């Protein structure tokens, strides 16, 4: 189980059943710190999603690297590349990898047989 799911279960147990926090944490095998954890940057994830979707719609041949560099260098956002990549992959914006086309080579002409020496 994900820690966030366990945390939610423990919070429901404390709210609905009146169980102590320590007992709920022991029952769901999470720490009390995990029980009280509140993610701070969830609001920015929505903003990152909006930017990535807008960029990939406007420029269909941009992959993650170009999108990230545009957000970082042009727009000036200081988001971590690992975080932006995680959201990019969750949105399934990955570009299709095109197979390489094989070149068709013509067969060379047969070698000419000399009539006489030199």
Characterization of the model:
It comes from Roseobacter fucihabitans. This is IS3 family transposase ISSusp2. This protein has 118 residues and is mostly helical. It has two domains: 3-36; 42-90. 55% of the residues lie in helices and 0% in strands. It is built from six helices and no strands. The protein has helices at residues 3-17, 21-27, 32-36, 42-58, 64-74, 81-90. The N and C termini lie far apart (84 Å). The mean pLDDT is 88.
Brief synopsis:
With 118 residues, the protein is mainly alpha-helical.
Main attributes?
118 residues; mainly alpha; 2 domains; 6 helices; 0% strand; elongated; IS3 family transposase ISSusp2
Strand fraction equals under 5%
| Contiguous runs where pLDDT drops below 50 for at least 5 residues | none
Question: Mind telling me the C-alpha Rg?
Answer: 29 Å
The 3D shape can be described as: elongated
Protein name: IS3 family transposase ISSusp2
Organism: Roseobacter fucihabitans
Give the helix/strand layout.
Layout lengths: L2 H15 L3 H7 L4 H5 L5 H17 L5 H11 L6 H10 L28
């Amino acid at each position: 189980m994900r820690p966030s799911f366990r945390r939610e279960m423990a919070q429901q147990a404390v709210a609905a059943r009146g169980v102590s926090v320590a007992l709920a944490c022991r029952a769901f095998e999470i720490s009390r710190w995990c029980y009280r954890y509140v993610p701070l940057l969830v609001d920015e994830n929505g903003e990152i999603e909006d930017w990535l979707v807008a960029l990939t719609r406007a420029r269909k041949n941009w992959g993650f690297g170009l999108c990230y560099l545009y957000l970082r260098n042009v727009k000036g956002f200081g988001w971590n590349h690992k975080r932006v990549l995680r959201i990019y992959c969750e949105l399934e914006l990955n570009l299709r990898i095109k197979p390489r086309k094989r070149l068709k080579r013509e067969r060379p002409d047969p070698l000419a047989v000399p009539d006489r020496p030199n």
